[in-house]
Structures are given as C-alpha cells and as structure tokens.
C-alpha cells in the first residue's frame, strides 16, 4: 500500500532541487525523500529545505536510498544528464536511457504501486523507457510532456493580448521538443475563438503572429540555457501542478506524456496530449479535434519520436 502523502524525488540537480522546493511549499505531501547518486548532495538539499519548514506546513524531508521509496505514492524522476548549450533534447537519448536502465529496476525492486512521474529529458523517450523497464500499468507512468510548453504558450498569448494567461486556453502537443505543435484550431480566450479575439484586438496577420509565438515557445529552453545554463523554475512548477492533480484527484486536463494506444490514429509511443490526470495517473486521453494540418504535424512529431525509439533497447 502506497502513501499519496509521501513523494520521492530521484535526482537532486537543478530540476530536482527546485521541484523539491516547489513541492515543499505546496503543502501536498507530509513526507519527501531525496535520492541522488551523490548522497552528500541529497543530504545537503534535505538540510537546506528542512531549515525553511518553520515557514511552511509540517513535513519530513530526508535524504535516502532506493529502499526508501517503498511506500511513496509519487516518485518524481529528474535524474539524468543535463542538456548542454547547443545540444538538442534528442542528443541526450542514449546517455539517459542508460541511466534509466540502472535506476528503474532499483525503484521497482522496492515499489511496484507508485505513480512514476518522469521529468528528465528527452521526456517522451524516457517515459517510454520507464514504462518498458518498470512493467507498471501505462496509466501509472507519466511524463511532464508538454505541460511547461503549454504554460509558456499561455503566458506569451497573455502578454501578446494583455490578458491573464489563465484565461488563455490553448495546447502545445506532441514531442516535448523541436517537433511539437500548437493546436491553434481549438485555441480560445474564455470561449472566444482566438482568431475572433485577434480581430477584436486589431491583429490581422494571424498566421505570422501565430508562427512568431510558436517559435518563441519552441525555442524558449534553448534561449534560457544559452543565457543561464539550465531551465528549472518553470518545470518545477509544472511538476507541482501535476502532483496537485494526482494527490487531490482533480481529474484536471494536462498535456502530460503517457502511452498512446490508438489515440489520434497513433500507437506505440509516449508524447504530450490532453489527458485527464487524477489519483490513478493518466486516467484518460482526450482525442480533441485537430484540423488536417495539425493532424499531419502530430503524425510527423510521432514519427520523429518513433525513429528514436527504434534505436534504443529497453
């Protein structure tokens, strides 16, 4: 029996540490264990976080080993080689799959009932690897997918129109990477179709403006890495949001990455698509309507991922 009030964060680099901080502040969990190949690093992060507990809700934060995940309800995997300047997410594949081949069996040895939340990149490939290596039911192996990309799109749309990003309803789907796509055909601002809202705001060159926003979303990580070496705040908040959906059994819709089995006419891969997320994990994928161009782009994105999957063994 797992405890949904306990989580484990595997990997204490920038993403793991900031995710742990975001989760500490969330009040979602009453216990969190940090695991890293560098035990001293995990111990230091646990100490540093614990010293702030006087300002948050009660929580036990410790450094541990794989055996300490035995009753964790959510296991967040951020461990892996980082993305370097000039390196694409796909360049990380072979290094990080090898890490997962060592790590996932250790997790499964002690816990077969948790929800695995994969955050390490390339997230869609590693979500697939975690699914194959763990033997977990597909709904309990999810990746952060395009949750952050979708948040970036909403933010940029909000800036563009001068509207609260939370009132922007649009998705980035597909690979979390260069082949991802924006679903413009369904985008709206509090039920007002995006094209119509553009007209109301005096914007006429829709295709040009949409392409500009899409390119900015797609290249955001590269720009941040170029400027500061790594991205971590945005993804940490994405991890927090996904965990909220799981622990609170929200049945909220997020573009997490999970196993595609016939949805959108695709199968045999993991990638970010609108999904109902609750206490059971990825509970239901939503086959939202795509126009012909978007469907073709999604198929191209899937083909990109499948080409990579064909080169790895799990």
Q: Taking Cα atoms only, what radius of gyration do you get, to the nearest Å?
A: 19 Å
Could you state the order of secondary-structure elements as H and E? Answer: EHEHEEHEHEHEEEEEHHHEEEEEH
Biggest sheet: strands, sense, closure? 6 strands, parallel
Read across the widest sheet, the strand sequence of neighbours is: 3-2-1-4-5-6
Oligomer: single chain
For the record, what CATH class of the largest domain applies?
Alpha Beta
Output the structural class.
alpha/beta
Low-confidence segments: none
Sum up the overall morphology in one term: globular
What percentage of amino acids are in beta strands?
15-25%
| Tally of strands | 16
**What's the total helix number?**
9
Give a description of the structure.
Helix 1 (14-26) crosses helix 8 (233-247), helix 3 runs parallel beside helix 4 (123-134) and helix 5 packs across helix 7. This protein folds into 2 domains: 3-143, NAD(P)-binding Rossmann-like Domain (Rossmann fold), CATH 3.40.50.720; 147-309, L-2-Hydroxyisocaproate Dehydrogenase, Chain A, domain 2 (Alpha-Beta Complex). It starts with a strand and ends in a 5-residue tail after the last helix. It is 42% helix and 20% strand. Helix 2 links the parallel strand 2 and strand 3 (60-63). It has 314 residues and is of the alpha/beta class. The chain has 9 helices and 16 strands.
């Amino acid at each position: 029996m797992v405890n949904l009030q306990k989580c484990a964060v595997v990997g204490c680099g920038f993403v793991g540490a900031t995710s742990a901080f975001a989760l500490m502040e969330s009040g979602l969990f009453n216990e969190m264990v940090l695991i890293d190949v560098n035990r001293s690093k995990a111990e230091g992060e646990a100490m540093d976080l614990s010293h702030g507990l006087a300002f948050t809700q009660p929580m036990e934060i410790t450094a541990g080993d794989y055996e300490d995940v035995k009753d964790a309800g959510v296991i967040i995997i951020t461990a892996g080689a980082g993305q370097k300047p000039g390196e694409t997410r796909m360049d990380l594949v072979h290094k990080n799959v090898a890490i997962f081949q060592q790590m996932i069996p250790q997790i499964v040895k002690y816990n077969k009932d948790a929800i695995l939340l994969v955050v390490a990149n390339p997230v869609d490939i590693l979500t697939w690897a975690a699914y194959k290596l763990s033997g977990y039911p597909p709904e309990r192996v999810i990746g952060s997918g395009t949750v952050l990309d979708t948040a970036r799109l909403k933010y940029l749309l909000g800036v563009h129109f001068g509207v609260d990003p939370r009132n922007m309803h649009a998705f980035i789907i597909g690979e979390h990477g260069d082949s991802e796509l924006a679903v413009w055909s369904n985008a709206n601002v509090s039920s007002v179709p995006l094209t119509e809202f553009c007209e109301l705001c005096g914007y006429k060159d829709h295709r040009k403006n949409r392409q500009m926003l899409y390119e900015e979303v797609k290249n955001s990580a590269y720009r941040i890495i170029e400027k500061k070496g790594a991205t971590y705040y945005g993804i940490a908040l994405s991890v927090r949001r996904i965990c909220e959906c799981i622990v609170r059994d929200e049945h909220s819709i997020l573009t997490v990455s999970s196993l595609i089995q016939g949805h959108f006419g695709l199968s045999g891969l993991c990638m970010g698509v609108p999904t109902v997320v609750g206490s059971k994990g990825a509970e239901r994928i939503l086959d939202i309507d795509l126009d012909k161009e978007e469907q073709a782009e999604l198929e191209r994105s899937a083909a990109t991922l499948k080409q990579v999957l064909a080169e790895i063994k799990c």
